[in-house]
Amino acid sequence: MFERFTKDAREVVQSAAGHCERAGERTVGAEHLLLALLDRESGRASSALTALGLTERTASVRQALDEARRRAGLSRAEADALAGLGIDVSEIVSRVEEVHGVGAMSVDPADSGRRSGRRPFGKSAKDVLVAALRSAVDRSELPHARIRSRGGTTVIGDEHILLALTVRPGVAGEVLADHGVTYESVQRVL
């Protein structure tokens, strides 16, 4: 599938792996893809994020992602669902951090001592990339869509990764929605 990616989309995927490695995490997740998109200064996704005002609020996005990471990657919706069962995620995080230090729940204990190298893609990132392919195919079938193809094969651009992030459940989609970036708004500016 990677051969279907544009240069911009490939750079997003490679940058996401870099974010994962710098964070000391075991697998590349959807959040790393979002961070990689925020780093970009060119490409259709960058243009869309700029048009939606997100590039001026990247600090807020990064803070929201850090807060979710502190909650061991739980979205607010997941934390709310647990609260409905009587489990206070904030209290658990506070107690763990009291004993083990701030950010203790964001570190994967299996990663301690892990040497650097290529990080595999986790389920959330794989799901985003599959959804990006679906988005590329769906958009290529629209009569007004700008169709990009290589030898009759639909090409996946960085804009498709952004669109996929907006529709996938989880932290990245939740953070984007909280900042006014939805599938509809991205589609509109594209």
Number of DSSP E strands: 2
Distance between the termini: 23 Å
Count the helices. How many?
A: 10
What is the global morphology?
A: globular
Percent range of helical residues: 55-70%
Radius of gyration: 17 Å
CATH arch. level architecture: Orthogonal Bundle
Order of helices and strands: HHHHHHHEEHHH
Mean pLDDT score, rounded?
82
Strand content: under 5%
Assembly type of the chains comes to single chain
> How would you characterize the largest beta sheet?
2 strands, antiparallel
List the uncertain runs: 109-115
Please, how many domains? 1
- Judged by helices, strands and strand pairing, the structural class is mainly alpha
In CATH, what is the homologous superfamily? Clp, N-terminal domain
- CATH fold field value: Double Clp-N motif
Pfam family, one: Clp_N
Protein name: Peptidase
Domain Clp R: 2-190
InterPro entries: Clp_N_dom_sf, Clp_R_N
